[in-house]
Amino acid sequence: MAFRMEPMQQPRSSSLSKFLFLLALLHFVELKVWGHQILESEQYPLVVSTWPFLEAVRAAWRSVDGGSSAVDAVVDGCSACEELRCDGTVGPGGSPDENGETTIDAMVMDGLTMEVGAVAAMRYVKDGIKAAKLVMKHTKHTLLAGEKASEFAISMGLSGPTNLSSTESINKWAQWKDNKCQPNFRKNVLPIDNCGPYHPTKSLDLPEMCSNTAYMQDIDSLLPHVGLHSHDTISMAVIDKMGRVAVGTSTNGATFKIPGRVGDGPIVGSSAYADNEVGACCATGDGDIMMRFLPCYQVVESMRLGMEPKHAAQDAIARIARRFPDFVGAVVAINKNGEHAGACHGWTFRYSVRNSAMKDVEVFTVLP
Description:
Layout (H helix, E strand, L loop, with lengths): L11 H18 L1 E4 L2 E4 L5 E5 L3 H12 L4 H15 L19 E7 L5 E7 L5 H11 L4 E3 H10 L11 H12 L10 E3 L6 E3 L33 E6 L5 E7 L20 E4 L3 E7 L1 H4 L4 H10 L4 H15 L5 E7 L4 E6 L3 E7 L6 E5 L2
Parallel strand pairs: 5-6
Antiparallel strand pairs: 1-2, 3-9, 3-15, 4-5, 4-10, 7-8, 9-10, 11-12, 12-13, 13-14, 15-16
Helix pairs in contact: 2-3, 3-4, 4-5, 8-9
């Protein structure tokens, strides 16, 4: 009797395994791996910025989409805003202090290395974000301030000394002086004349000699008004093609601030924060209040504990509003999956986003 050997049939389970393996391999082409997470490629590169600073976001996008690191893209984006003098509150030529001078605050943070560079109350140098990067890359410090920050920046190759005032800022300052230097950021003081010098008083009751002056007006009317065009910051976050996260900020601070004042712009954890393991946060608003709560550090830590960006942003703003119900401010939370959400208090806030799925920058509106 003859026997014919039939080809061995592969077990059905083996064929199924190969089929699933091929599907997984094809799917992996559409994905990128970051740490222990797998992200859809369309989620990054990603650029997020406070306010509709469209040209700044486009500049950052061109940089990161062309292969630049997150840090370099942040610097490129914020630099564009400084050059454009966004809203008159970023870069030179805006927000004069009580002496009529414009100064710069800026910060950059690398979410991979956790390095930070910042400059505060910097005079005579217009390139705030570039100066901050020089501090991060070429010193073991985190923050340099005042005229010495300017000397450092110039010594490292930035242009200067430069007059940071403009015709607009000088005219704004002159009108403020004509209005007896009101509103201002002073409290519990009395001026010798309309614009100082000031000396402290133990009581808000004004002396009889002032009873017929403008200083008898309601004390609330003396308070400075923080608004869209008197106080603002560009705060930007970027996730690059490798999944690295960075943030940066730049501002010329609060209009008619007391000379030497430093806002939250150069304060890490307040105006911005980044951590590759979690994501990033950007903030804008009344920095004198917001820096007391480190809202961006709070946002990132809340996301680390599992909160979605929307809830993390809302929680950080609510913490401030409970203690200071009249403050104005906003935050944007971005997790490492590219999901973003904002929250605000005291004003309607808008922020800008660009990623690979978008044809151009898109602006999102957040209601208080």
